[in-house]
Write a structure and sequence with these properties.
five-stranded parallel sheet
Length: 315
């Protein structure tokens, strides 16, 4: 009888050990798998958390639009606030210390969550999202729909400036720069199988239009054109289109979702939006945004470019 008890006891212990090992394996896999963050926030959820003390709302529009009306309690930031002005051309992302100083001045602390909105289909807001991702700050939400959706949901707006008290905000001292590409990296990629995606308009891509800030018109060689605005309901509510529509649009890339892709536009703003769409909504794994984009590239005469049209210089 004792041998039967011993066998049963052995089987019980063996089974328990297997289950414990399986649980530990699952925990290890889970810890090694990045948690997918949903960076979009809809108006119903936004309204429930907007007044919580750890929430900071960022109005990322031009100052005159903010002064006219904005979400009550919103802080104001614009493109020039997050640019490095030391370059001879515009649009280069601000340094880590510049962002720390800006956010500290606005009363933002390190563990705050930022909810960013604009009036341009999240194009401008996505630039700030992209910059913060490079500096490993992920407590960010992009308000899907912007001010008009907020007002339609009876959200409070005001024309009064938000009163702030200075705080201390810190970013990672060793940032990953995970979605960033420099001019040198962009140049080196021309000789590889990297997909180069131009997110500007057809007129900019062809060289017909030269926007203010560019030294010349044209495009980076071997570029594929997919206008960033195809991803949103541009003439409607400016919300991002459903995933199935996005999949169809970006099937033009004719690539796997692991393929290396570098996106660019005029100054890295529209391409930041496309970076968001590809990585966060369509699960592309190897997408980076060329920070200086065409504004920087056009400044250097030794860098190759293509154009198909006579150029009209305008803003």
């Amino acid at each position: 009888m004792n041998w039967r008890i011993n066998i049963l006891l052995f089987l019980y212990v063996f089974s328990a050990c297997k289950q414990e090992k399986a649980i530990e394996t699952k925990k290890q896999i889970a810890s090694e798998t990045p948690v997918k963050i949903n960076y979009l926030i809809e108006v119903d959820e936004f309204k429930t958390i907007a007044n919580q003390p750890h929430i900071k709302v960022i109005d990322f529009r031009k100052k005159e639009a903010y002064d006219k009306e904005h979400i009550k309690g919103a802080l104001h930031i614009w493109r020039t606030d997050i640019e490095d002005a030391s370059f001879p051309y515009n649009g280069i992302m601000a340094s880590r210390t510049q962002i720390e100083t800006l956010f500290s001045t606005l009363g933002i602390v390190t563990n705050d969550t930022l909810i960013i909105y604009d009036d341009n289909g999240l194009c401008d807001a996505a630039r700030l999202w992209w910059l913060l991702q490079n500096y490993d700050f992920t407590n960010v939400k992009l308000f899907h729909g912007g001010l008009n959706i907020w007002k339609a949901a009876n959200g409070l707006v005001t024309d009064e400036n938000t009163i702030v008290e200075k705080a201390v905000f810190k970013l990672s001292e060793t940032p990953s720069m995970k979605y960033y590409v420099s001019k040198e990296e962009m140049r080196d990629a021309l000789n590889t199988n990297t997909i180069i995606l131009d997110t500007r308009t057809l007129d900019e891509f062809s060289g017909k239009r030269q926007k203010k800030g560019a030294a010349k018109a044209g495009r980076i060689p071997n570029s594929i054109l997919i206008d960033w605005a195809e991803a949103i309901n541009y003439n409607g509510d400016k919300k991002i289109k459903p995933v199935e529509d996005l999949e169809s649009i970006y099937s033009q890339l004719d690539s796997t979702k692991d393929a290396p892709i570098i996106v660019y536009c005029h100054s890295g703003v529209r391409s930041a939006h496309t970076t968001f769409v590809l990585t966060q909504l369509l699960d592309y794994k190897n997408v980076k945004n060329y920070d200086g984009s065409w504004t920087e590239w056009s400044y250097f005469n030794d860098l190759p470019f293509k154009k198909d049209s006579l150029t009209l210089v305008n803003n």
